[in-house]
Write a structure and sequence with these properties.
Order of helices and strands: HHHHHHHHH
Distance between the termini: 74 Å
Helix content: over 70%
Largest sheet: none
Structural class: mainly alpha
Oligomer: single chain
Shape: elongated
């Protein structure tokens, strides 16, 4: 009798682990992303988990990297559509931030990541480094303080959507329009 062998699919296993971690982070927060819980939810052994991610830190870093790549792609899409140079980066940041909210499940994961950024200096430093590189890449603003205020407002609206949504769609759109107006002063 010939033994039945299962074809290994390492990329599928890796994606299942990332999805499980993302789901747990979205539902409960990044602090609840534990190796045993992720392995259980992904339907893999602890050995399989550690084969793909040497530690929980590596897994969280990968989630942040994926989020940042996705956000940067959205940001770049908005940048190329904006013909006005003055304030372009911050307008793209606003539009990418507001558009991000409307994708399935992303708001909850984003909220978990932002919460982790507030609690984890290493993750926060990584985000700040990314933002600093973006500002260098796309040019400094005439009024960097106003640019920061506008981006902080966008970040706050992400948190509002995650923690306790109080603004309806019309109010969110009005807020976006007002912030976009302010970018004309950058």
């Amino acid at each position: 009798m010939k033994a039945i062998t299962r074809k290994k699919q390492p990329e599928l296993v890796r994606q299942n682990i990332l999805q499980a971690a993302s789901d747990i982070a979205s539902e409960q927060g990044l602090e609840y992303v534990t190796t045993p819980e992720v392995a259980k939810r992904a339907g893999v052994t602890s050995g399989a988990f550690f084969h793909h991610f040497p530690s929980k830190k590596h897994l969280i870093d990968e989630l942040l990297k994926i989020f940042m790549q996705d956000f940067e792609t959205s940001l770049e899409e908005h940048l190329v559509r904006d013909p006005e140079v003055r304030g372009r980066f911050t307008r793209a940041y606003l539009r990418a931030s507001f558009n991000y909210d409307h994708r399935d499940g992303d708001t909850r994961l984003l909220g978990a990541i932002i919460t982790a950024l507030n609690r984890n200096k290493e993750l926060a430093d990584h985000w700040e480094g990314w933002l600093e590189n973006q500002l260098k890449k796309y040019g400094r603003e005439k009024d960097p303080v106003l640019g920061s205020i506008i981006r902080y407002a966008a970040d706050g609206l992400w948190m509002e959507a995650f923690c306790h949504p109080t603004l309806n769609l019309e109010e969110r759109q009005s807020t976006l329009e007002r912030l976009l107006e302010w970018t004309r002063k950058l």
